[in-house]
Amino acid sequence: MMSRRVPSRGFAAGLAIVLAAAVVAATTGFLGVMPASSQAQVVQVRAAPSVPRDDPFAAFWNNVQPVDVALSAQNITRPMGGGTVAAVQLRAAHDGKRLYILSEWSDATQDAAIDTTTSFTDAAAVEFPAAGTTRIPSFCMGDPGAGVNIWHWKAAWQRDVDSGFATNRARYANMQVDLYPQDGDTTFQTGLAAGNPLSAQKHGSPVENLVAAQFGTLTNADVQDVGGVGRWKDGRWRVLFVRSLAGAEGSPSFAPGGKTNAAFAVWNGSDGQRDGIKSVSQFVDLQISGEKIVRKPSSFAPAIIAFAGIVGGLAVIAVFGVFAERRKRV
Amino acid sequence: MPDVYNWQLGRPMTYRFREAHPKWQFAAVFNINRCIACQTCTMACKSTWTFSEGQEHMWWNNVETKPYGGYPHHWDVNTLKLLDKADPGGQKWDGRTATPAAPYGQFTGKTIFEAAAALGKTDEAIGYLPTDDEWTAPNIFEDTPRNRRESELQATSLPEHRTWFFYLQRICNHCTYPACLAACPRNAIYKRPEDGIVLIDEQRCRGYRKCVEQCPYKKPMFRSTTRVSEKCIACYPRIEGTDPISEGEPMETRCMSACVGKIRLQGLIEVGADGRWAVNPDNPLYYMVREEQVALPLYPQFGTEPNIYYIPPRWVPRPYLHQMFGPGADAAIERYAAPSRRLQAVLQLFRTTQRIVHRFEVVNGHKIGEMNVAGKTMELFNDTVVGFDRNGKEIVRQSVMEPLHDRGPKYLNTI
Fold first, then answer.
1. Residues B225, B108: one domain?
2. How many domains does chain B have?
């Protein structure tokens, strides 16, 4: 009896190692995740003849290697908080004219309503050094010597774009109002009358283009040229940011062969997250290249490799076991 | 954080910004004893500023019935609970002798700013966001009598009525140290140097609602149709004298001038170079708040140095008043119940003009009677109070005794 235990232990341990290796190979192969490094992460922006602009879940993005970028709570300035989303998964591409950045993260709820005092919208942002900066700005909203450009997507604006601004009359179907005096006069829609872009009921895009050069300085940019779309599916948001590579005057411009810094943030509305209460990354490198996005081989390939690995491993262990058994007998 | 001096607390306290004061401070005295909750003030405000879509829940001026009512519901109890959590049993005043710098003694508990630090919060002040439900139904069913066993406190001066209540009139306090202003991460809220009115910059606000969360009086309000917050603007065109009917002279706000019960008097307090109220016993507000101390700040322990002052209701149990108006409540009621000759005259100024009274004079009249108040004899005189605007021009003249016109037999049936 004793003589049989030795080979059987060796067999079990060997099998576990081989299986684990195969599972890792298969998983990373299937998901295409690049293991994240703690610093100097690089997001490759490769070229494609065309990139779908309306569907963040388009099959096109399966060909792009995602990079997981870690997020953490914002604990530098008030209001602090967030950190509820551990990471965003990033993909990017360009078609020679436009830059596409796809940010994806887990969120159990879709929060697109800003109906009440306590409701906040889900949101996502990308931050770049502002045009003309001679050094890397602080990733925390820039600094007075080096500003930042921020693209801010809001689920609430996405809903406005998709289905129109929800008025109180629409939201509260049973509400009784005799009349709104001066109805339609924007003087009394004070935010709107003051020219606050947040008060606008129509948006050309769900993404707001902003500039900042310190905490508390976030300001709507003169040119609103960032497009995009965000969709929620099975507990995940995917938000696609789109802008011309060149950009408007005063905006950072991108070109194949170039590299820029980019930081990412997301907000979970149902956690009361807004402003500094967010999950935010540090700067990563966005490497824009002329290299083309290669269509991935069949998704069966990693499975075949994994299967071959398991079979091979089993064969090795079997041989090892047989030899061990023979030695004992000898 | 820097220390600022809060005279209502009689001590320095922490605040986000260093001490800076306006030249004049918007202020008012509300005489709770006179209010009948007709809500004319509420509707005057509503019909002037908050009649549009998205403002349905918004009442910059509201009158609520205490002790049970509140708009938004339980706003004060919620904040008091948070304070008690930060400083269990410690929210007290030291009871020391009043001085000009500390007229109510010294508050030894924690303000909303200090409580946030004590609780390890990263916000400027403690606070919470009222829910949609809590903004609904202002002053509905608040007057409905309750079983008296619900309250252990009994009315102090009307023994035949064992249930007590009173009306509390509320607008933005245009605080000296506004929590809304400190809470705004964008510095989109500012206090005007010319009159101390606190405003939200509607162009810069991004609807984060930190002001709604941290104002203990819950007077900034979120508007879902513009996605930014709004608040009482102290009818600033009237204060500036730029409202068409003000003819260039400072004028009281809509809620003040509409007051049917004559409970409100509003004006501007001159602030000295040292940041303290410039001594001016001839200003009716200064006189009532600092000289007579008959009008008191609402929840001074919050620490924002609010600028609406209340003559507390005489019949309400004192522990309740002490919590709401601080330790000055007993003396204020004593002085109001048996007013001095000068106070009798000043109380006549309420709602005699829409213009802001900057200075008053009292012209002595003859004695019209005397009465016994709490064992003391109080003499009544038919003095006349004269109010002047900022240019020294007389704008109102009112005697203590209402003028009596004897209608002769010839006109008896002319109506």
1. yes
2. 2
Q: A-B interface: how many C-beta pairs under 8 angstroms? A: 112
User: Which residue type is seen at A11?
Assistant: F
Q: Which of A76, A171, A185, A196 would best serve as a mutation to test chain B binding (most B beta carbons within 10 A)?
A: A196
Is there a contact between A120 and A82 (Cβ–Cβ < 8 Å)?
no
Question: In this structure, what DSSP letter does residue B67 have?
Answer: T
Residue B408, in any domain of the structure: no
Q: Which residues of B fall within a CB distance of 8 Å from A117?
A: 129-132, 135, 209, 212, 221-222
List B residues 11-70 in contact with A (Cβ-Cβ < 8 A): 47, 51-54, 56
Q: How far is A143 from chain B (nearest CA, A)?
A: 15
From the list B47, B56, B122, the residue facing A78 with the nearest CB is: B122
Q: Is B204 on the interface with A (CB under 8 A)?
A: yes
A79/B221 touch (CB, cutoff 8 Å), yes or no: no
Asked if the peptide bond before residue B306 counts as cis, ω within 30 degrees of 0, the response is no
Same domain (yes/no): B127, B181? yes
| CA–CA–CA angle B244, A199, B72 (5° rounding) | 80
Same-domain check for residues B284 and B374: no
Closest CB from A116, A196, A272 relative to B203: A196
**Average confidence (pLDDT) over B328-344:** 96
The two beta strands, B228-230 and B221-223, are antiparallel
Distance from the Cα of residue A49 to its chain's centroid: 23
Non-local CB neighbours of B142 within 8 Å, separated by 6+ positions:
B64, B65, B68, B69
Contact flag A168-B124 (C-beta cutoff 8 Å): no
Query: Residue B247, SS3?
Result: coil
Note the pLDDT tens digit of each residue in A191-246: 999 999 999 999 999 999 999 999 999 999 999 999 999 999 999 999 999 999 99
Residue type, B213: E
Mutate one of A185, A186, A190 to test the B interface: name it (highest B CB count within 10 A): A190
What DSSP designation does B68 have? T
Indicate the residue of B124, B131, B225 with minimum beta-carbon distance to A78.
B124
The domains of chain A are located at 1-31+297-330, 37-165+202-296
DSSP state, residue B403? P
In the DSSP assignment, the letter for residue B141 is: S
- Give the one of B122, B185, B228 whose C-beta lies nearest to A196's C-beta: B228
pLDDT-above-70 percentage for chain B: 95
Say if residue A42's pLDDT is above 90.
Answer: yes
Subunit contact B53:A168, Cβ cutoff 8 A = yes
| Residue B131 with chain A: CB contacts under 8 Å | 116-118
Q: Which CATH code fits A37-165+202-296? A: 2.60.40.1190
The tokens describing B172, both together, are: 């933005």
Residues B214 and B327 occupy one common structural domain: yes
Residue B320 and residue B182 share a domain: yes
Domain of residue B214 covers: 3-344
- In sequence order, the 6+-apart residues with CB closer than 8 A to the CB of B143 are B37, B65, B69, B165
Given an 8 Å threshold on Cβ–Cβ distance, is A180 in contact with B51?
A: yes
Q: Which chain A residues contact residue B123 at CB under 8 A?
A: 78-79
CA distance A183 to chain B (A): 7
pTM, whole model, 2 decimals?
0.88
Q: What is the ipTM of this complex?
A: 0.91
Distances (CA, A) of A58 to A63, A97, A244, B203, B230: 10, 19, 20, 38, 42
Q: Based on the domain organization, do B104 and B238 belong to the same domain?
A: yes
Residues B283 and B361 in one domain: no
Q: Please indicate, yes or no, whether residues B33 and B173 belong to a single structural domain of this protein.
A: yes
Radius of gyration of chain B (CA): 21
Q: What is the CATH number of the domain that holds B117?
A: 3.30.70.20
